[in-house]
Amino acid sequence: MTSVATLIASIPSSVASEQTCSPALAAGPWTFDQAPGYGPGASLGDVLPTGSPRQGSLPEEYRNETNERLHERIRAAKATLGDRVVILGHFYQRDEIVEHADFLGDSFQLANAALTRPDAETIVFCGVHFMAETADILARDDQRVVLPNLAAGCSMADMADIDSVTECWEELASIYGTEPDADGRVPVIPVTYMNSSAALKAFCGAHGGIVCTSSNAETVLEWAFERGQRVLFFPDQHLGRNTAKAMGVPLELMPMWNPRKALGGHDEQTLLDARVLLWHGFCSVHKRFTVDQIDRARLEHPGVRVIVHPECPMPVVDAADEYGSTDYIRKAVAAADEPTTFAIGTEINMVNRLAAEFPQHTIFCLDPVICPCSTMYRIHPGYLAWVLEELVAGNTVNRIEVDDRVAVDARVALERMLAAKPKAD
Ligand code: CIZ
User: Fold this and answer.
1) What mean pLDDT is predicted for residues 74-84?
2) Per-residue pLDDT for 276 more than 50?
3) Domain range for residue 254?
4) Partners of 231 in the beta sheet?
5) Total domains, the chain
């Protein structure tokens, strides 16, 4: 199976826009290091959020190095560092990075994996910014977390910022008040998806709320409904809607909050009746999946098993045979005894890796256009070689350090999440 990076590199630039979702994917990520507006965010055109870190130029010796030499340099630096470093690779990373990772998994599994390597002084997180922040919050005080490219952010995480959520919270308090009902349930519980800044996790920790992942979202909503009359769910509207709908919450009781409008764009009664207030965030990769793609897969592959991620829009989740987190998808494929055709609606690096790992099955991505998560894709072997060789030289570059005041409250919300086990476990 050809890696996604090799596949993109092999497409002539004149046709790249038809076969990939962005012709810019064919360029080395350092091409954009100095571009105005380039920074955390899923599309190369996203505006840099205020205060977000800038990568700066990757030294030329890494930009001009062949892939083969970069791999040799990564292996040599890793061997020199030994147990002092642990490299974590997210499921959505390119194969050229995953081959150097000590652990492969979702953000939650990786944050836990780092804890199993107490000798590691440095955790090199090949994922995106919010994942490195979470690892830093959960890591020991003497461990450092490094993100190889600081521009590897998450546009969904950037769609909810602490100021807009705080304003929303205050507006809600003006309607709901702050007093619990006769059953002791407070008016509203904040729930943030793992894909959010440390500041929002801290907001949840400080306001009786919790963090969820895509694997334990239902358990977390149950937890929240035991303690609150309603839930304010951010940033991913789709995960919130799909999960609450599966739990029987009617769609009309799930208004979407628009931070640019007074009362989020609703009248008071709608907000009073609401069970789940959804933020307007979404994932740029998962929103590409459509019901048409599912219909086509069923037409072309009778008997196909369609599994999609809960970050997909509701009609797509409804049309699929199953839905679940990356971990769910992996386990479902691994558990299939008979050779099966799977059409998967999640990030393409993960889908192609599953296809290579389970050759007894036919596995393909529902989206025919090659569209990796473009911020995950910014972790190129050049950046990994650079951060590792700097560590060998005694320098820590690209450290992600969450302010202690934020980390304390964020840890409260994360610990509540750790206690909320996924339904399938
Ligand atoms: O938590 C993660 O790693 C993400 C982004 C999704 C998932 O389903 O695992």
Assistant:
1) 97
2) yes
3) 158-284+407-419
4) 189, 276
5) 3
